[in-house]
Write a structure and sequence with these properties.
CATH superfamily of one domain: Winged helix-like DNA-binding domain superfamily/Winged helix DNA-binding domain
Largest sheet: 2 strands, antiparallel
Strand order of the largest sheet: 1-2
Number of helices: 3
Strand content: under 5%
Number of strands: 2
Mean pLDDT: 82
Structural class: mainly alpha
Order of helices and strands: EEHHH
Low-confidence stretches: 74-86
CATH class of one domain: Mainly Alpha
Helix content: 25-40%
Length: 90
């Protein structure tokens, strides 16, 4: 998934976790929601979760669903163009 986060079906049911750990990304996101600072989180998970890992977790937060495996980035989906097609000259 990234430099600090992986989603392996054999680890925590495919939920995004921090590399080399079983710390699920949603746990860190909840800690942030509860008002913990990045420094407090790093101290709580010494040598497991860094500030750059927290930044990566925030970057993918829209894709993380608590207790659900990662389903992918959906790169095949295309956003519809907001531009109207121009009329072709006859």
């Amino acid at each position: 998934m990234g430099r600090h986060i992986v989603a392996d079906p054999a680890i925590c049911g495919g939920q995004p976790t921090f590399k080399g750990t079983r710390i699920m990304v949603w746990i860190i996101l909840e800690q942030l929601e509860r008002g913990m600072t990045w420094d407090e989180i790093v101290r709580e998970w010494p040598d497991k979760v860094s500030k750059t890992a927290i930044a990566e977790a925030i970057a993918i937060s829209d894709l993380v669903v608590k207790h659900e495996p990662f389903t992918g980035f959906h790169v095949g989906a295309r956003r519809k163009s907001s531009r109207r097609p121009t009329a072709l000259a006859a």
